[in-house]
Design a protein that fits this description.
Chain A: Its EC number is 7.1.1.-. Chain A: NDH-1 is composed of 14 different subunits. Subunits NuoA, H, J, K, L, M, N constitute the membrane sector of the complex. Chain A: It is found in: Cell membrane; Membrane. Chain A: It catalyses: a quinone + NADH + 5 H(+)(in) = a quinol + NAD(+) + 4 H(+)(out). The complex is a heterodimer. Chain A is built from 14 helices and 2 strands. Chain A is mostly helical. Chain A has one domain. Chain A is globular. The model of chain A has no long low-confidence stretch (mean pLDDT 82). Chain B contains 6 helices and no strands. Chain B has a domain of 77 residues: NADH-ubiquinone/plastoquinone oxidoreductase chain 6, subunit NuoJ (Four Helix Bundle (Hemerythrin (Met), subunit A), Up-down Bundle). In chain B, helix 1 runs antiparallel to helix 2 and helix 2 packs antiparallel against helix 3. The longest helix of chain B has 26 residues. By secondary structure, chain B is an all-alpha fold. Classes of the chains: A mainly alpha, B mainly alpha.
């Protein structure tokens, strides 16, 4: 019998992470429009509320009040199940991400993390590999050839890029020696010595992982499953109302999780430069207690992690409005003949550097 | 037997029956995925976190996606379902029944072990690092041979995907 984690505190953290994922996904739709407008020298949404900040609410009202449409000959149960599955898998993956170090009240110390398991990385990877089912089932159940083509594209694209993604992760795991995301974060900063984030040790691995993250979240330049010019709307051609909204929402949550994973694995997670110096200065010069100084560092670290995450989300959107879409054969060739060999080379280089003690 | 075990066993059996009895092959695949999830839950109960995660990634995440992929292309439905002769049905029933008989006979006298938590029980037994030590020390040769097999399959896939000299797809 496994023991359930300290449910009281942990359920609060899980609920906050859940609510934050939804809130961030909501405002990603707004940010996408604002950034698109900025990059294309337009005004963007500015009617609903100050600076158009209520635009996501207006969108939600529009989505909910639209007609629910079921195409003829569709498999109705699976047609509804598809977007639900996409949303469930998107929300599940943020459970193991460490959003902050521990905070302590009196004698109790808590992790700012949904669940701490020693296979955290595999959990993220497993849930990401399940994410394609929502797209596949929805596309197949629509009884529409464009939807089916989109679903098949999504499946083959996700499987192809999972390989390169997993192999770029192996290089990180070789250095860290653990699958726990919290451990990987903590290893990227050591008190009292120069210790670099993984991006310095794994530049190639980060580039591979980042490209694969774009492909796994179906973002431009790899949004072939919903390629409008070829497939009308891809897998969600037949979807309307909030079922379409769930698909779009799931994509933004996936972007949020992918950004969080990249920040944790390669950009130090909740670490920020000079955190130990700041804590020691607070304790020695300002007369703070060690615990409260540590709590302040944790809060600052969480703010820092979210700054990194928002930076990556901006990067996702910047790329979307800058690069054109790849052709399907180019996408497959990039995955199989460039990224996978590169990832193998990266593993070899990392192994050699560890063997000769250059990095640890 | 904990309620969690009973629940997982119930889900596993029910969805496994669903795989066999579902008319629609896509439903069958989805039931099979649910079965894998229930099995992963059993692995977690047995304290084998790594096995549970890998079961989800490899079986539910990769292999079943390929199954679904192929079944979507085959366009199997009620109209195209082949009608099997009565002889084949009888033969299947006899073969399945004798397999069931053998399994029941083999499992009838099994003494369950490890059910009692004695002092020698090692709670770290299913963890990643412990598994790695066993794989890389005790079973190094079979492990490496299997990995060479995978490498060959991967190189083969890349070779198939590569464009030959002079060939143009567009």
């Amino acid at each position: 019998m496994i023991e359930l984690p300290a449910l009281g505190w942990q359920s609060i953290v899980i609920f906050v992470v859940f609510a934050l994922s939804l809130l961030i996904a909501t405002y990603c739709t707004y940010a996408e429009r604002v950034i698109a407008a900025f990059l294309q020298d337009r005004v963007g949404p500015d009617r609903a509320g100050p600076y158009g900040l209520l635009q996501p609410l207006a969108d939600a009202v529009k989505m909910f009040t639209k007609e629910e449409f079921f195409p003829g000959g569709a498999n109705k149960a699976l047609f509804i199940f598809g977007p639900c599955l996409a949303m469930i898998t998107a929300l599940m993956s943020s459970a193991v991400i460490p959003f902050g170090n521990n905070v302590s009240f009196g004698n109790n110390s808590f992790f700012l993390q949904g669940i701490e398991v020693n296979v955290g990385m595999l959990w993220v990877f497993g849930v990401v590999s399940l994410g394609v089912y929502g797209v596949m089932i929805g596309g197949w159940a629509s009884n529409n050839k464009f939807s089916l083509l989109g679903a098949v594209r999504a499946a083959s694209q996700n499987i192809s890029y999972e390989l390169a993604m997993g192999m770029s992760l192996i290089a990180v795991l070789m250095m860290s020696g653990t699958l726990s995301l919290r451990e990987i974060t903590l290893q990227q900063s050591v008190a009292g010595e120069w210790h670099f984030w993984n991006i310095v040790k794994q530049p190639l691995g980060f580039i591979i992982f980042c490209v694969c993250a774009f492909a796994e979240t179906n973002r431009t330049p790899f949004d072939l499953p919903e390629c409008e010019t070829e497939l009308v709307g891809g897998y969600h051609t037949e979807y309307s109302s909030m079922k379409l909204g769930l698909y779009l929402f799931a994509e933004y949550i996936n972007i949020f999780v992918a950004s969080a994973v990249m920040s944790v694995l390669y950009f130090g997670g909740f670490n920020f430069p000079f955190q130990y110096e700041l804590r020691d200065w607070l304790v020695s010069s300002q007369g703070w207690e060690l615990a409260s100084a540590q709590n302040l560092i944790t809060v600052l670290g969480t703010v820092g992690l979210f700054a990194k995450i928002f930076g990556f989300i901006f990067f996702f959107m910047w790329v979307r409005w800058t690069l054109p879409r790849f052709r399907y054969d180019q996408l497959m060739r990039l995955g199989w003949t460039i990224l996978i060999p590169l990832a193998v080379v990266n593993i070899l280089i990392t192994g050699g550097l560890i063997l000769f003690g250059v990095i640890q | 037997m904990s309620p969690l075990f009973l629940f997982l066993a119930f889900v596993a059996l029910l969805s496994a029956l669903g795989v066999v009895f579902a008319k629609n092959p896509v439903h069958s695949v989805l039931f099979l995925i649910l079965t894998f999830f229930a099995l992963s839950g059993h692995y977690l109960l047995l304290n084998a976190q790594f096995l549970a995660a890998v079961n989800i990634i490899v079986y539910a995440g990769a292999i079943m996606v390929l199954f679904l992929f192929v079944i979507m292309f085959l366009n199997l439905n009620v109209d195209t379902e082949p009608h099997k002769p009565a002889l084949a049905k009888i033969a299947a029933a006899v073969a399945g029944g004798s397999l069931l008989l053998i399994l029941v006979a083999a499992l009838k006298d099994v003494q369950p072990t490890g059910a009692t938590l004695d002092a020698t029980f090692d709670s770290q037994i299913g963890m990643v690092d412990r598994l790695g030590l066993v794989l890389y020390q005790q079973y190094l040769l079979p492990f490496e041979l299997a990995s060479v097999l995978f490498l060959v399959a991967m190189v083969g896939a890349v070779m198939l995907g590569k464009r030959e000299a002079g060939e143009r797809n567009f």
